[in-house]
């Protein structure tokens, strides 16, 4: 009887240890390795859906022989680390332009519908634009609603890279190296209202804005995104007291006429894995209110896709704050991260 009791106690101890270890893993104490998704998911946007998954969407790119070149690839994950390919957002290219590619999507939910904003453009396009597709489900299929505007409509060259801020009012921000602009959106998430306004100069594209403690943080991309190992893309930041600006860098300069403060740039050359061209970011705040910066970057060991385009896998880095400013440790993409998001 005594021996049996000791075995039972020992068994309970083992169960407790295993359970504790599992809880620690769930709380994000185990690290991960970048990239978190390959071969490519450029210009990522992410949403936590009602089904418990995070869904990420990226620029139209060739993935592999089986998947081909999806019209906005969709991947999903429970933990932001292990991702699985879901499919493509659109079954066919929108018909409001004669030709183009679907770049730099933006996902957000309005009421019961998932809104997927996208850029429709080719390199050097004289009249690119921003469109909207909608679905009841994050995995699609999405139904195209057409163009919100083109460059000719809105009077801004290279009108791509949409970003949405929901609120009262809603805002659409956009722009690529011809100024960053904003405009109000009606509650339908499709119709613009009022006049456009400018928040940043022509050094930036790929806007991301978030609010923290009554301040608005701007993160934009500068430099060349898609020149393989020669890409100079990096993330620069500024902040403002009002969503409409003015946005100032750490030196107090308005980014209408100045560059932002560097948040993340490419790795210095050296031993180990090297990433260049980090940019076009989004962000997730986990259950512990920790911030996770999500972006693409270029692995210098495999910088190109089979068709010759720049290969831009999905990356994730923890982000903290010092003296009221975002900080990524080392200021460069890290390969090994010693903890993971608390999202369970």
Number of helices: 2
Question: Largest sheet at a glance?
Answer: 4 strands, antiparallel
Strand content: 35-45%
User: Any idea what the CATH superfamily of the largest domain is called?
Assistant: Glycosyl hydrolase domain, family 43
CATH class of the largest domain: Mainly Beta
| H-E order | HEEEEEEEEEHEEEEEEEEEEEEE
Q: Unreliable segments (pLDDT under 50, ≥5 consecutive)?
A: 1-28
Can you put this structure into words, describing what you see?
The chain is mainly beta and 344 residues long. It folds into two domains: 1-30; 45-337, Glycosyl hydrolase domain, family 43 (Tachylectin-2, Chain A, 5 Propeller). The protein is built from two helices and 22 strands. It has helices at residues 2-26, 151-154; strands spanning 32-33, 45-48, 54-57, 73-77, 84-88, 101-110, 113-121, 129-135, 143-150, 163-165, 170-174, 180-185, 192-200, 205-212, 215-222, 234-240, 261-264, 275-285, 291-299, 314-322, 325-327, 336-337. It has a four-stranded antiparallel sheet with strand order 2-3-4-5, with no helix packed on it. It has a four-stranded antiparallel sheet with strand order 6-7-8-9. The chain has a four-stranded antiparallel sheet with strand order 10-11-12-13, with no helix packed on it. Strand 4 (73-77) and strand 5 (84-88) form a beta hairpin. It is globular and about 45 Å long. Mean pLDDT is 92; it is low at 1-28.
